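Subject: sequence -> structure tokens, single chain

Hey, anyone have a minute? Need the predicted structure for the following. Not urgent.
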Amino acid sequence: MTTSSQPRTAILQALDRLVEVVAALRHPETGCPWDLQQTHKTLVPYVIEEAYEVVEAIYSGDTEHMAEELGDLLLQVLLQAQVAQDEGTFDLQVVADGIADKLIRRHPHVFGDVAVASVEEVHRNWDKIKAQEKGQPHNPHALTPKLHKYSRTLPPLMAATKISQKAAKAGFEWDSVDGVWEKFHEELDEFRTAIAHEPQENQLAELGDILFTLVNLARWHGLDPSEALQTTNHRFVQRFEQVENSRDRPLTDYSGEELEALWQQAKAHLKQ
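Reply:
Had a minute. Here:
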């Protein structure tokens, strides 16, 4: 929270300037043709992409890069609000007032007279208030609504991690990690059978079972599967870049053995 009116005034001025820029981009007569073509749905890929780029910037520790990527994500919020305003459904004021009101309602220990003794109690109050807002009965022991939400709203790997964690915490768990390994080998055999003899729908289902079991293995060993895959992606791209930089003809002209040799050279180079 700002402690001086001067910085707060500067922040509001900057936000107002950005709102005006976005409105100009969407002006029906003088705006940008690309921006004018956008809808809520066409902007979805950019929302997702910018959110992931914010995460990457945070992990990089580069605060300048972080500020830039947060700006790109903020742009997506303003664009969505501007599209809605142009359609006459809602505007940025509705968005801002809505989230401010929600935060105040769900933090009665900050904006009201409710006392809390722990973070867990904050979570319980949050869930209770959220259920009241939606007109739903509050059952603190009901896990299924949360699992449904994870499966609908989170990226698949992140959703699988959350679902696995919550189910295990509720007691839906193996006795030991040996049971998880047995399940993995069972699912691997079923996937191989599906690939050889069953339709694609079954193949996809069995592949999903393998991936979900791997998520559970990661949880048992205290590993973050999203972080692991992200690290592997970065490592692969770095090695592939080394291979591309060392070639003297198109990669398609190399034999499998030659590509493997280049790959091993790239790995060795990056370890130095």
